[in-house]
Structure formats: C-alpha cells, structure tokens
Amino acid sequence: MDAIQWEPVLRATKIIVDVKDGIVTLTGHVSSFPQKLEVEQVVKRIAGVKAIVEKIDVKHEDGWKMLDDEDIATAVLQTLEWNWKIPKERIKVKVEDGWVYLEGELLWNYQKLEAVQAILRIEGIKGVTNNIVLHSREQDTIEKKSIEQQIQQSWALQSCNVDVNVIGTNVSLIGTVGSIYQKEEAGRIAWNTPGIWSMENKLIIKPSYKMAF
Fold it and tell me: Residue 212 domain-assigned?
C-alpha cells in the first residue's frame, strides 16, 4: 500500500491489497488502463512477491465519452501505422468490449513489446492481450555465455543466481531471483538474443527484504 500511494499518478486510486504466502491480490478500480499497469509494475518491484492476482477494473471518470470498439480499433491501427519500429503488415488487431487482441508473426521480441507499448495510452482501452508469436529468420548460433553476461551486467540482476540453458532455438532460465520484476527483466534480456524462437522462464522467486528497484 505504501509503494502504491508513493506514486503520484496512483495516489487518488482506490486499490485494496491482500497478501497471503507471497501472493498479492489487487482489487478496486482505476480511471485508465495505464494506471492499472502502473499498479502492477509497482507491486512487481517489491521483493518477496511471488505472484499477482489482478482484479482491478478500469472505470473512466464522469463526463468521459465512451468509445466504441470500431473507434478503438481505428486508433490502434493508426498508432501502429505511425510507429516505424513495428512492421504493421504483420499484425492483426481485434477489439472486443474495449479489450484489444494482437495477433501475427514478428521477427524480434522488441517489436512484440513495442506493439503493446505503442497503444497503451489510447483512450477507451480496458486491456491488451498480446498473442503475437516470434519466428526469427536469424540462423546465428545462440551463445549461452553471451546471454549470461548480459544478465550479469544488469544492475537489477547482479545479486541473482541465473543459469541459462540453450537447446536449438529455445532458451531456458533457471535459478532464483528476489522479485517478479527481476524475473521479467531476465526474460526480457534473454529475448533480445538473435535466433530465439521460444523462451522458458523457470526462475524461482525467493523472498528477500531488500527492495528490487
């Protein structure tokens, strides 16, 4: 609760927090989808959090004009069109009751992440499901040591124990970290390696009393 209220954009939100055995359940409502994501990110950075059950609703402020799914879909397509990092012709968009579904096939994980980041602040969006798959054309051999070095160089992961296993185009991460944020950061770094088609993040979160910012 202290971490959520510390963030200026979240101080006016009405969030209820329940914790049991490292599992955090979030209920309540916020006025926008970005606020909902911000709450999740704040909680992920707290050491010892093993999982998040998120039941936050997006309730727009009084006087806000409700956009229909067609308006949202048009806005999403235009936003993707304007972003030069994203090969828009490879992405299909579906909107249902304010929820955006992205599908298609991309070469790089950063493009998959960029597609979501590009549309987060579009008004009317209640959530995003990213079903885009990766199919890299790179034939480079995936270097285990290279991935491990990149993970070790991350300030957020220097105190963590992360081992990398490589089988063909698949990468597995095994070991322990102190927070969900660290687990996701290790996965993000691994995904940046050329040639990866799939990645299994098997990192275990062990409670720690140091904040993982």
Answer: no
Q: What is the pLDDT of residue 195?
A: 73
Backbone angles phi, psi at 86, to 5 degrees: -110, 125
On whether the pTM is more than 0.90, the answer is: no
List the domain range (segments joined by +) for residue 129. Answer: 69-134
Q: Is residue 128 part of a domain?
A: yes
106-138 residue pLDDT tens: 888 888 888 988 898 888 888 899 999 877 665
* Structural domain contains residue 172: yes
Residue pair 192/164 in contact (Cβ under 8 Å)? The answer is no
What 189-194 contacts at long range (C-beta under 8 Å, 24+ apart), as own/partner pairs, is: 189/147, 189/150, 189/151, 189/154, 189/157, 190/147, 190/151, 190/164, 191/109, 191/110, 192/109, 192/110, 192/150, 193/142, 193/143, 193/146, 193/147, 193/150, 194/136, 194/138, 194/140, 194/142
In a domain, residue 139? The reply is: no
